[in-house]
User: Fold this.
Amino acid sequence: MEKLAITLTVNGSEEELLVPPNLTLLHLLREELALTGTKNGCEAGECGACTVLLDGEPVNSCIVLAAECEGKHVETIEGLAERVGMRKLQEAFMALNAIQCGFCTPGMLISAYALLQRNPAPDELEIREALVGNLCRCTGYDRIIGAVQQASREEEPA
Amino acid sequence: MTTKERTPNLIGSSPRRVDVFEKASGSAIFTDDLQFGRGLLYARVKRSSLPHALIRSINLEKARALKGVKAIATGEDFPNRVGLYLKDKHIFARDRVRFVGEPIAAVAAVSEQIAEQAVDLIEVEYEPLPAYFHSEDAVKKDAILIHPDLDEYETANFIFPKGGTNISNHFKVRKGDPDKIWEACAQVVQRKYYVPHVQHVPIETHVAVAQADRTGKVTLWASSQSPFAQRGLVAKALGLSPNQIRIIANYVGGGFGCKAGLTMEALPIALALKTNGRPVKLRLTREEEFFTNFVRQALVIEIKLGCDANGNMLAMQNTMYWDGGASTEYGVNITRAGGYSSTGPYDIPHVKTDSYCVYTNNTIGGPYRGFGMSELHTGIEQCVDELADAIGMDKVDFRLKNIVQEGDILATGMKMHPTGIDRCVRKAAKAIRWGQKTAAGAANKRRGKGIALMWKAPAMPPNPGSSATVKLNEDGTILLGVGGQEIGQGAFTVAAQIAAAELGVPMDTIRVTGPVDTDYSPYEWQTVASRITWSMGNAVRAAAADAKQQILAIAAKAWDEKAEDLQLVDGVVVSRRTEREIPLKDFAVYGIPNEDFSGWTGGPIYGRGKFMPDYVTGLDPETGQGERAVVHYTTGAQAYEVEIDVETGKMEILHAVSAFDCGKAINPDLVKAQMEGGLIQGISSAVFERMIFKDGHMLNPSFVDYRIATTMDLPDKITSIIVEEPQDDGPWGARGIGEHPMVPTIAALGNAIYDAVGIRMEGPPFTAEKIYLHMKDQAAQKE
Assistant:
């Protein structure tokens, strides 16, 4: 297969890569850039473990082709950890034991982060709806929802 | 442990988990995250497309010719049978296939795509055989044999295969004589329930990478709950010593039993032996994860239960047919566990149990959170409800009258240890406001309440061992070595708490070393059976005590004092007698200079500890009787209030209450986290989950068709209650809690549905459609 030259920005860093046309964003991140915080759970867009932000919107990176990301901005858990909003979410997840095996955690955090970006004070139903595409088999979700609520209640720093 | 000792403050507190910063930041390394560079080969597997057939021929020619293919392995390379309790499995099918998805060959290639293409080029000629998909069919007298050589298989001495049949284990309990008692019973209930296959569904699928060097040494990186047991099984399969195999197990992205024992991990090893040192990786697709590895066995259970006019249970007859699938190497012990726990948590004088493990041509059954207990209690606890109704007693009172208590002689002859089950029942009943009917939210809705109890013992060989090490660093910080796995339950955190508490050092000075590595980590049998807090906890405590003794001995010698007068408090050695003190960091590795400048006292400190239960006895094969069948039972109860829409069958769970006796909650918040996670997994299995098969092919191997609980499926309210009746040989009284919270769920919801709308279904999942259709049938019958 002939490779394609693409340029995209990942966590603020411009990357020029030669990729096969069928390479997904998930594999690009994990294998080409060693950004393994983004997890592979189903490769069918059904579990949410591979959620990243693409131009600010949460997407399942397993069903986005790398070639579609030409000129776009991708943010993963590794890059988002620099943001205050993400740090508040991480702190709440850690404080409330909203993490068990941790495999769904990066995707869950990113979906929650995207929610709080567009709706800083969601109610419980809005949180549930925003996270419905992120499967977790360990925690039973209740603590995750509580952690998002806690993070959303904290005031923005001046 | 002595009863007089004071429990350290850290035990029973809930410090932050030691692994969460790694996990929240995306830094935690799972097996698939390891980078092996350009030399890595990718494996795919040729799998059986038939449920039962003889293999006439396997043609690898076209696959071998494909560019990029580096190795192909088949059953020809591996004549040895493997298995944990019964050696009835080959790494690859040899002369016959026994389920759809069984590995026949595997290919290693330079890319996953090429490996997949090569697999498609492998030609297999079959001669189809009749296949069985229900345990009740496979046990019929004229059934053809799925394992004709069963008689020759090597087996653990507590497993009883019946050669010449499809029964790979028959566990019996004979206590008293129920047949003579039924007439004396005022009420008898006889029921049959069916619990379907479900899958564990870890969000991380199975993944393993293998590498073999030219000396024959094999290294395996695997997402594994049991690197040590796996090492033994790999050694057996390859005819090697465990000393030639190294297994490195990083964080596990959800296990629930499916990553115990040895399953797909053998496949990349088989390939790696042929790739001249290149590592080979196999990662199961989500589809493969559903039906090619362990699943939870289906169960057909027939229970007859009788009581006298005062509501005393007198007799139980319990017959279980477990659908073990095509291999029952691990599943035979689920059958055994179902057998010795077959009364549920009740004191019943007359018991007859027959628990059969049955070969079928379904996918292989294996350990799943609860190890048979969810399926067993689905039957028992709905029967108990019906018997309470029949005798006209309140269902909670009826249970309290019959629950197992300290000193009771169990069905196996074992004497029951202290248990807090009575408190679990009372607290759960109180929290759900038992006996108070609340008004439904609308005219088309009906409310109901249900309760179910449970018990479960760790199911394992009689003598599984744990060990731990405590190694001091130069600055007084500590590396805690364990072989138990962090699979999400919090094992590393609890280990650090136990070590810190026993030593007398701040918890944040302890790091639990990972990944678990069979070359460098202390031995641990497996991270299964809810045994880690108890068993590994004891080993950690012993290792910490050993290190502390060494620490105090050094200071005592340097100060010319007695070690008994010294203690380690918050990382500082303090003399009660002279009030001298010295921080651990000042002498942890290099020791203390003698006061007369004559040299040094001390040296590197390395504590070690172990634990192995040495008191479990064998059971008589004909009666199931023995002095001590198991190490202990964890008990508990769940209660629910539900509301059902009679126009659609849709059920809403208004309140879910869990109360479990964990002996002593080392970390209460983590105990509650287990109760909540298990509750939702249980609800998911009760309401949504079922593997649907047609002629052995799974029809719903995806998250779209096999639905698990999401954020939209939670009860309106969840209450988790910890009860603590100490375990005599647990660390500060602790026993396990990992599996138990999903065990009573199906039965408790079944009971709540009955209370709401008066229907009982033959088994889960209790989908809206099924509830609706049963209500319709019931209405039709009344007309």
Chain B has a mean pLDDT of 97.
